[in-house]
Amino acid sequence: MSDETIRVLLADDHPVYRDGLAALLASLPGIDVVGTAADGREAVALAADLQPDIVVMDVSMPELDGIEATRRVVADSPHIGVVMLTMSEQDATLFAAMRAGARGYLLKGANQAEIVRAIQAVAHGEAIFGPSIARRVTEFFTAPPTEDSAFPQLTPRELEILTLIAAGRSNPQIASELFLSPKTVRNNVSNIFAKLHVADRTEAIIRARDAGLAR
Questions:
Q1: Cα 105 from Cα 57, distance rounded (Å)
Q2: DSSP string over 49-83
């Protein structure tokens, strides 16, 4: 950053929001809005050309979505910090953005102070999330073991069948629900019993429900 001025590129396909945020940020001391992009592909190109300190990136954009655009920006210029500013509260979107390399994630309802704080923090190498987002990240990483981790010895198909067994489904019902042959279901059930070292269906149900399946 030159003279502590943070150079920002904005990427959002809604012109009213994009132009409004650009005008707001440009009016603040220490922030220089060096460009705006209307889609993900343009954002990647401008980031490569302008080399901003920060890209404020929307998730849902035409041509190239914000997640893929972030991945490309960070791959090409790792020193550029990306702050996702989006309407999406879905955990899948949040974690996809993190995996793509975003270091900040705010909802579009964030106020001016939150947006500026995020830009400044990420520009100085920190990672930052809005209060509600940070809470969900914390809950995710402090959550008890999931169904998938409860029985790592099972294949995804076996785990799926065990979940249905725990829910009280019979073999014919499982076959119908998963579009499998009765023989395939029987073979999988036998494998499950062997891997869990249980003698019968009742014991398997107890093990599965104790682990949190089918609740």
A1: 9
A2: HH--SEEEE-SS-SSS-HHHHHHHHHHH-TT-EEE
C-beta neighbour count of 175 within 10 angstroms: 18
For 194, half-sphere exposure in the C-beta direction (CA atoms, 13 angstrom radius) is 8
Specify the residue for token string 């499982």.
174
- The topology (CATH level 3) of 2-142 is Rossmann fold (3.40.50)
| Domain coordinates in residue numbering, the chain | 2-142, 147-210
pTM recorded for the entire structure: 0.63
Which of the 8 DSSP states describes residue 145?
P
Residue 8's closest CA among 91, 60, 85? Answer: 85
Kindly report the CATH number that applies to the domain delimited by 147-210. 1.10.10.10
Residue with tokens 């035409």, as numbered in its chain: 62
Crossing angle of helices 171-178 and 182-196, in 10° steps, is: 110
CB 74 within 8 A of CB 101: yes
d(CA 16, CA 54): 21
First to last CA, the chain: 52
- pLDDT tens profile 147-194: 445 788 888 888 889 989 998 899 999 998 888 889 999 999 999 999
Which tokens go with 36? 């705006």
